[in-house]
Amino acid sequence: MNQWLYRGYGLLFRLFRLFGMKPDKAFFFMGHDCKFQGNIRYVHDAMKKEYPGIRRVVISKKQLFAPRGNSAFAQGLQKLIGSLGLFVVVNYHMATSHYIFLNDNFLPLAYMPFSPDAVLVQLWHGAGAFKRFGLDTEPDPDVRRMVKKGNRRVNYVPVTAEHIVPIYESALGIPRKNIHPDGIPLMDYYFDGQRQQRAAERFYRSYPACRGKKLILYTPTFRTEPEENDAIWEQLRAEELLRRLGEEYVLLVRFHPQRPPKGIERLPRNCVNVTDYGDVKGLYTVSELMITDYSCTAVEYSLLGKPLLFFAYDLERYDRGCYLDYEALPGGVLRTAQELPAAILHPEAGLQNAAYFAKQHFDCPMEYGYSRRLLQKLMKRA
Predict the structure, then answer these.
(1) How does DSSP classify residue 338?
(2) How far apart are CA 187 and CA 173, in angstroms?
(3) CA geometry: angle at 245 spanning 354 and 236, to 5°?
(4) Computed over its alpha carbons, how large is the radius of gyration of the chain?
(5) Low-confidence residues of the chain: pLDDT under 70
(6) Quick one: how far is CA 166 from the chain centroid?
(7) How far is CA 230 from the centre of its chain?
(8) Which residues are bridge partners to 273 per DSSP?
(9) How far is residue 279's CA from residue 276's CA, in Å, rounded to a whole number?
């Protein structure tokens, strides 16, 4: 959408407000990912259990625009249907819901005058504050202005630590008073052993050949330039890594779903592409060790106390930057693929990194019930 479309979106929103806000309605809009997971899923499920009288509506932007055929006609038709769904259906639900939950920035908010009684919650799709994000990396002044204007309407943002509050204030343009370091809903998973066990069993049903193997999870984030993004897979040298580790190891690779690099269709033996696997936390549970670079997946993974290895072959060139000082990692940073096998087989440095990462990102209460406590606070505001 361009700016005039955003303004039109706001005018239609005003019209839909005439239908009245429904006090028993909640709308969950996934602008970031079509997979119903993360913070937004945990809050939805907690609401279903704790407040069954509230009607819940869930829509994913990606699913609205998902292609339903390979022909140009089918793709054009789906684009039209998706645009109508985003412009009309999503707009209507935002205008008529008492509780609105988002997992990404939504630029039309700048022109949407919500009712003073509406509760607008940003359940950001990432955890903690590792690589720079949001307004801290946005060069377009018009986008920056609209994000700041729209996010002033957000009532509540949960984060994991007090010192992360000013980072989210800067990155999202949300007033500091509306950012709360009480912990984020998805943390409930890490205090629920039964849920972790079920997640592990689901994984092994999907990948039975992985049972009994030592699983290494690789979760790099994307690079802005296409050629740099395509180099991610090449730099790992997965075939050589697996040969040096031995037959008992399997490498699970999960690339950023929006920008997977080229070449992943040719995977070596004992290597599995799990980019499209629906339950990322199940991957955390079954793996013995994670290799990443600048991905916020490291924040969640540190809660498990498993080794964390940081493979940053392009640290000097990485264009987004990080909030956390890489040089402070006690286990160090791996700069070449040749360093990986020894670090995996002798994970002491990875354990040091995990402990340090957890300490840096979590000073909230460490006990089950984040989703329930968040909803209790929202209900008091309503």
Answers:
(1) G
(2) 24
(3) 70
(4) 21
(5) 1, 34, 258-259, 261, 263, 381-382
(6) 20
(7) 21
(8) 253
(9) 9
DSSP 113-131: ---TT-EEEE--SS-SS-B
As a whole number of angstroms, the distance between CA 281 and CA 379 comes to 28
Cα 270 to Cα 49: distance, rounded to the nearest angstrom: 40
Report pLDDT for 62: 86
Q: Tokens 């990912």 map to which residue?
A: 33
The β-bridge partners of 119 are 99
3-state SS, residue 98: strand
Contact call for residues 144 and 172 (beta carbons, < 8 A): no
pLDDT of residue 263: 64
Answer whether 252's CB lies under 8 Å from 218's CB.
yes
Instruction: Determine how β-strand 157-158 pairs with β-strand 119-122.
Output: unpaired
Which residues fall within 8 angstroms of residue 21, CB to CB, at 6 or more apart? 95, 96, 97, 98, 115, 117, 118
Largest CA distance in the chain: 66
Q: How far apart are CA 333 and CA 303, in angstroms?
A: 20
Three-class SS of residue 272? strand
What is the enclosing helix (H) or strand (E) of 83? Answer: helix 72-84
CA dist., res. 56 & res. 70, Å (int)? 33
pTM of the entire structure? Answer: 0.89
Task: Please say whether the beta carbons of 351 and 307 come within 8 A.
Answer: yes
**Rounded Cα–Cα distance for residues 262 and 49 (Å):** 42
Beta bridge partners of 23: none
CA distance 250 to 242: 7
3-class secondary-structure state, position 364: coil
